[in-house]
Amino acid sequence: MTHEPPMNLPFPPTETPALDASALTPAFSPLYQQIKGLILQSLQTGEWKPGESIPSEIELAGRYRVSQGTVRKAIDELASDHLLLRRQGKGTFVATHTEQHVQYRFLKLVPDQGNQNTEGPAQRTIVDCKRLRATAEIARTLALRAGDSVLQVRRVLSFAGIPTILEDLWLPGGPFKGLSAERLTVYQGPMYGLFETEFGVRMVRADEKIRAVLPDASQSELLQIPASAPLLSVERVAYTYNDTPMELRRGFYRTDTHHYRNALS
Amino acid sequence: MTHEPPMNLPFPPTETPALDASALTPAFSPLYQQIKGLILQSLQTGEWKPGESIPSEIELAGRYRVSQGTVRKAIDELASDHLLLRRQGKGTFVATHTEQHVQYRFLKLVPDQGNQNTEGPAQRTIVDCKRLRATAEIARTLALRAGDSVLQVRRVLSFAGIPTILEDLWLPGGPFKGLSAERLTVYQGPMYGLFETEFGVRMVRADEKIRAVLPDASQSELLQIPASAPLLSVERVAYTYNDTPMELRRGFYRTDTHHYRNALS
DNA sequence: CAGTGGTCTAGACCACACT
DNA sequence: GTGTGGTCTAGACCACTGC
């Protein structure tokens, strides 16, 4: 909409640190990183919404008063972070969790046979969904204060009729005001898609801690497995822009018919 | 050493597909991809060995008769694949598994407390190391023929005196001729470092399949855990250049004090 | 056809490491 | 200072998409 104020010129005659000239580290920041920051800002503020196209490289170059190549390098990095999606001949788009090809981007459980991600959509059952006060641990993980309102959800995912994943998740009450079991049940597609379209919360990255555990009583019942059958415990913290934690999720995966796939490089 | 034969000129007057003009897809390949392929070749053939520096961008641009920017883009991709390592002011180096900072690059198990990768080096114990004939399954995974010679190794890694990882691994007999329990015991540092320096085999990427399992008798004994204690089963296939499988490794991780860390993006 | 992203070039200059 | 990788620019042209 409005153009940004004029930036620091690229390499002005006298070297001008962008900010805080007295910092311990010179904190030299390449132009394209600054552009990346500006684009990131426009993504955060919702100037460009998930699924929409952003202005063309040439247009952005004009707006930011830099060359197309510099904008290009900024977009390159954002695209490799999966925040943007480039499509030759069409434009650059704000990435979404609701695309066909990358559905369940954060779910790495795949069936032992069959190459499809989860061979067909999962049956989702919301077991529980309630508001409560954050424990100290939940509060710490979600960067809240103990006692703040959080939403707790428990659900089961089944593949081919077999309950395979049990998930407990905790969401900060503020951003997810209005989320209910009803909404979760009605919505089709990945939960992170719902978060984007209904609550404007886009999950950007996540960390997972994986362990082997034995189920407790409720887990073995919901997953219909004996108490001695080991489960994969997957504890995930998902972050939105600015490394803000927005979800704590504890998943319990049956790995008798599926496995967690990870590519190392 | 010797210069490459002259390449296809960039965008020659008449469009010249690199190869196989009758392919279904036009198979247009950008120049920098072709350069990437040539550099990859020099890495495979050992013209530039792990740890050594490769020629400067300007020199490579001259050798391949392209601009520095094109070489740069090729190197960029190889660096992001961790095949090369750029160091400003010094040069570009062939990546290694023996660097301090990325030691145990493929090992994602970290202690629950303490941020260090494995807080200090692990104690390694070779339990077994013998040559045998490949089973059908091993042969398939390693792209061998059933009955071909393979090396089988079993070892235990302990952290702070606690046996934490039990690994069974299978290596093709040919490339690893001369590998013995003795060598494995004597060598300090990551096993993949030994593979590089002693056998010229550089692991480039790997796929892992992770499950929760219960230990068998020998596993619970070696890891000093009860038979009911679940373990993380990590089945890894590691590849060298050209997607050639070079190792099958089955790891069993205790996750009572450690966890498998994975970053999603 | 026009508009978009993708590739390639040539040249200038900056930041870093070594000597 | 010299040589390396890192950034930035300007311009040309290619490849893909859709009107």
Architecture overview:
Two copies of one chain form a homodimer. Chain A has 265 residues and is α+β, with helices and mostly antiparallel strands. Chain A has two domains: 1-95, Orthogonal Bundle (Arc Repressor Mutant, subunit A); 100-260, Chorismate lyase-like (Chorismate lyase, 3-Layer(aba) Sandwich). Chain A is built from seven helices and eleven strands. Chain A has helices spanning 31-44, 57-64, 68-80, 136-141, 181-186, 191-199, 217-222; strands at 53-54, 84-87, 91-94, 109-111, 123-133, 149-159, 162-172, 205-213, 231-240, 244-253, 258-264. In chain A, strands 5-6-7-10-9-8 form a six-stranded antiparallel sheet. A three-stranded antiparallel sheet of chain A has the order 1-3-2. The longest helix of chain A is centred in the N-terminal third of the chain and has 14 residues, at 31-44. The first copy, chain A, starts with 30 loop residues before the first helix and ends with a strand. The A-B interface holds A 80-82, 105-106, 108, 204-214, 228, 230-233, 236, 253, 255, 259-265 and B 80-82, 105-106, 108, 204-214, 228, 230-233, 236, 253, 255, 259-265. Chain A binds a DNA duplex (19 and 19 nucleotides) through helix 3.
